[in-house]
Amino acid sequence: MVDQDETLRADARANRDRILDVAREALAADPAVSLNAIAKSAGVGAGTLYRHFPSREALVLGVYRKEIDALVDLAPTLLAQHPPLQAFRLWCDRLVLLGRVKHGIANVLHAVISDQDFRETYWPMLGAVRGLMEACEASGDIRPGGDPQDVLTLLGLLWRIPPGSDGEARMKRLLALVFRGLGAEDAAASERS
Question: Are the C-beta atoms of 144 and 137 separated by less than 8 Å?
Answer without folding.
Answer: yes
